[in-house]
Amino acid sequence: MSDSLLLVAMVVVPAVGAAVVAGLPRERTPLARQVALGVSLVVLVLAVLATVAFDPDGDRFQLTSSVPWIPGFGVDFALGVDGIALVMLLLVGVLVPVVVLASWDDTPPARRSMRTFFAWLLLLEACMVGVFAATDVFLFYVFFEAMLVPMYFIVGSFGGPRRQYAAVKFFLYSLLGGLVMLAAVIGLYVVSASAGEGTFAFESLRQLDIDPDVQRLLFLGFFVAFAIKAPLVPLHTWLPDAGAEAPIGGAVLLVGVLDKVGTFGFLRYCLPLFPDASRDFAPLVLVLAVAGVLYAALLAMGQNDMKRLVSYTSIAHFGFIALGVFAFTTEAATGAVLYMVNHGIATGLLFLVVGMLIARGGSRLVGDYGGVASRAPKLAGVFLVAGLASLALPGTNSFVSEFLVLIGSFPTRPVFTVLATVGIILAALYVLLLYQRTMHGPPRGVLFPADPATADPATADPATADPATADTSAAGEPAPAGGHGATAASATATGTGTATGTATATGTATLTEAPPARTTTLLHDLTRRETVVVAPLVALILVLGFYPQPLVRLIEPAVAATMSDVGADPAGTTPATTEGTDR
Amino acid sequence: MDTVAAEGLLSASWLVIALPLLGAAVLLLGGRRTDAWGHLLGTATVVAAFVLGLLCTVQLAGVEGHAVDAELFTFVSTGSLDVGAGLLVDPLSATFMLLITGVGSLIHVYSIGYMAHDPRRRRFFAYLNLFVAAMLLLVLGDNYVALYVGWEGVGLASYLLIAFWHDRPSAATAAKKAFVMNRVGDVGLALAIFVMFAQLGTVSYEGVFGGVGALAGGTLTALGLLLLLGACGKSGQFPLQAWLPDAMEGPTPVSALIHAATMVTAGVYLIARSAPIYDLTPTARGVVLAVGAITLLYGAIVGCAYDDIKKVLAYSTVSQIGYMFLAVGLGPVGYAAAIAHLLTHGFFKAGLFLGAGSVMHAMGDEVDMRRFGGLARRLPVTFVTFGLGYLALIGFPFLSGYWTKDAIIEAALDRGDWAGWLLGGVAVLGAGLTAFYMTRLMLMTFFGRPRWTEDQHPHESPSVMTAPMVVLAVGSVAAGFLLVQVFPLDTWLEPVFGVPEEAEHVVAPALVGLVVTAVMALGVLAAWLFVGRREVPEVAPARVSPVVRAARRALYADTVNESLFMRPGQWLTRALVWVDNRGVDGAVNGLAATLGGSSSRLGRAQTGFVRSYALGMLGGAVVVAGALLAVTAG
């Protein structure tokens, strides 16, 4: 049946595309990006076809195909999807064309070619599809590790000034996690061999009855790898560096998809294969998850580098996802999976629009911008949509997932849930602080070289020319100024200043002495290409915000199956009415 | 609560929300192409929503049980959680629907004139439409999640509109402050919803109200307090009141619609809607009473000290919503009184704000009352309409505020215990203060010697602005009498709140009316003695009593917030950034460096991929071997 070839095609097509693009001559970069866009759109079509062919009420794994790969060790090249993997494939299918288009006019660093960039991007797509579609644990491991290589080169060759440092740090962290996981994968094989026939097939392994002590060890092996990937505090410090130094397209896929392999792994491997250990370690994981929600949100507020800031917000969001997974209720885990998709869309958009701002101003520092909304309303509008999705405002997709995670976790884990709920205040703060500092206020900063930092308000808006209002605004505004100074100071003190070499040339110190001759603004609103890049994500944010049920319908059966694996009631939580007291 | 499925016109009630939402979408997506007619479309959608809402309400009056549920689609359903997108049209939500679309229509019309010279007028109407849609969802939703979506939706619209002139840093800061303080309240509302789901397995009004009887007292109190936290945030009640006066940074029509007539009363709606919960928890109701009483006094005291005309009106709003909280806190005897005061307040406060906008329009956006004076003759329509709103607010006999405020004070006294006397006394004192600060405002603005410069040329506003003011002034005069005497609101709302027991009057209503009127007259007299009789200095006197100094700084509310939350928060953030870079990252880097043998290797750019890889492989092999050993041994 041809359906079973869909997943194979989704791996093969981008891989072949990568080879084709890499083989093009260096001067054919325009053709390379067209091929890349075409290939990624084909993958998107395949993902949609796979969704159409998928029956939510059917078998757990569908569209399966399997050929023996290393028969001696029972390794198969086995692909198949459940609802969880399927929605991740849809996310990959949507994000890669968007990223290709967003990187369309990027200039590569010296001695690099964008052709190579697009080739790595397609190879990365093949690996991402593979890692979600693998139903053989060894195959999963291979894709898991292989995924590192294209991302290493995307960050290390095409990133910011400190790209080498960031790439190596990313690679070492991931490799460390991967190797610990390899040990656990081998351990799994040993266990299955001692129980009968040695195998790596997920379905067979799931039915093993593993001794709880062994479960604990194997759980830790997988868990460490996944907790590095979807970074949980305190294993998170590679992400702000990688997220900040990666080119925007790379950052979108890194945070939007790659990191989700970690939370996907919790749900696919940790819970079903090691249910006892999962229950034992759940309190510990929840502590890390909630700590991440609060800690990373506070850190996001203190960042002056926009890309680092967005990276920290993602760490906070991963905390929510981990909470949803380890609360062991169908509602929360469904929310967690939905969160993975929604976060990819919302944070992807936030990274893209931050990238568009950086492309205009040449600086990643929040303090180098101000008043953008008055000159580029569309850019500011999309920025706001992305920000609101990031703070999970109702009406955006993220609200549904965050709400499901929290309401689903509350019955089993009230204390953790209450603490995580406080995180929604912090989310409002970090998003709106960023938005106010960059978009609101009088035009100033690197994009307005003609306007000195103390821009004359009379030129901006007749309303602000009124001396009374100007007075109140000066008096009523000590907080952001102080906060800004503080974050700038802390950023320099902690060495991120060096990471922003591009910014120093146009820093505020030189800005006040900028020659007044330059009257033109560097700022233009969204171009047509940029509009096409952001439009699908904005549309998805709103559509999934108001009508999420189709995705929930795909996800829920797989989540319910996972919940019954881990011994929770797949039908969801039971209300406590009859008990009548607070738990 | 028995509802019937929607039929006929009522099944199209979703259109009431969809129309303004469509307007917002067209205006936002249409871009500059819609500049020419955008404001007309925005106004037309709200007027159409009002007409449709009126027809729905008429039909509702003929439906048995007066409650109609229109289920639209499944919003999200997983596990045992089932959240539908459905609308509940009953007397309470229909009343709000008419208030929102009615006052909303008037303010849209007014804004056509007020924003005529603003280059971003289209965007203003888009946000205003968005607000109306979200507010309608808030009151029409048939479950707490729909309410929450509307709840945060109006918060977004409020944010966008406060920051409408966003190149003013003060406006941008005020918008952020409003959103964040609202989110503090939203956490309470969200947690209340979580508790409902955990305890009752449902979030629909019907399910929750049907099941609350089985809940333990502690749970009910917790629910009541969490909902109250949400209500305090949205309605600018103590201790979350500090954002509302700052929100006056937005254009004045916004202050009238969102920050006076509708959005800030959403907290009253929430508590009234949740009556079946509050009916069972006297403890939570007691806290509602305390919040209401504190806030009504707080707003009235601070309102006496400000010179900014919009801020005085804002503190007046804070204070008046305090009255409404006091009323809903009284339980079944107070719900209808609260809603009645909410409606009349919607009329006269919206009218007052529009009047203030007209004054600002005339005076070149000046808001300092010390720069006004003698405007009565220059702005005759504004003066008369504003004056009627003023009389209605201070409770001048037989105007709107007289009927609805007296009803609240009577209900408080009817408790008959010491708390009743205390609350009644506070409410009467508040009435006196209200008369004082509003008379002061009138005297400083419309009477006395002109303190503006001749080049300001005060002029009456165009009729597109004055017409809505006239309509609202008529409402300010008549609404109270109509709602209390002609079409009794409490009868209309009986299907929602039930029939309250006939209270035994502790004090005869006529006597209450007399006392309240006397106290009001004292307030007016005091204002005349302190303000009207003397010359108003153009600069606020610096040598004043500590009480005035404290009131001018809003009783140090911002100081408390800053020193308790903002500064420590900034310190914490700064400390954590340091810890994360030095501590956590340093520790991990250090560990990696130790494994690698040299601390410079990781940081140095030349560190080759292959070398690191090899190093990693080595480390990995050790781990694999160790793990295998451990597994075999285990």
TrEMBL record, chain A:
The chain crosses the membrane at residues 6-24, 36-54, 83-104, 116-134, 140-158, 170-191, 217-239, 251-269, 281-302, 309-330, 336-358, 379-395, 415-435, 531-547. One of its GO terms (cellular component) is endomembrane system. One of its GO terms (biological process) is electron transport coupled proton transport. The keyword Phosphoprotein does not apply. Residues 134-424 form the NADH:quinone oxidoreductase/Mrp antiporter transmembrane domain. NCBIfam families: NDH_I_M (TIGR01972), PRK05846.1-4 (NF004500). PANTHER family: NADH-UBIQUINONE OXIDOREDUCTASE CHAIN 4. This is NADH dehydrogenase subunit M. It comes from Geodermatophilus saharensis.
TrEMBL record, chain B:
It is found in: Endomembrane system; Membrane. GO terms for biological process: ATP synthesis coupled electron transport; electron transport coupled proton transport. Residues 76-125 form the NADH-Ubiquinone oxidoreductase (complex I) chain 5 N-terminal domain. GO terms for cellular component: endomembrane system; membrane. GO terms for molecular function: NADH dehydrogenase (ubiquinone) activity; NADH dehydrogenase activity. Gene3D superfamilies: 1.20.5.2700. Residues 143-427 form the NADH:quinone oxidoreductase/Mrp antiporter transmembrane domain. It holds the Pfam family Proton_antipo_N. Keywords: Membrane, Transmembrane, Transmembrane helix. It comes from the Bacteria. The keyword Methyltransferase does not apply. Its main location: membrane. The chain crosses the membrane at residues 12-29, 41-62, 92-112, 124-141, 187-205, 211-233, 254-272, 284-309, 321-340, 375-398, 418-443, 464-487, 507-531, 613-633. It is a multi-pass membrane protein. PANTHER family: NADH-UBIQUINONE OXIDOREDUCTASE CHAIN 5. NCBIfam families: NDH_I_L (TIGR01974), PRK06590.1 (NF005141). This is NADH dehydrogenase subunit L.
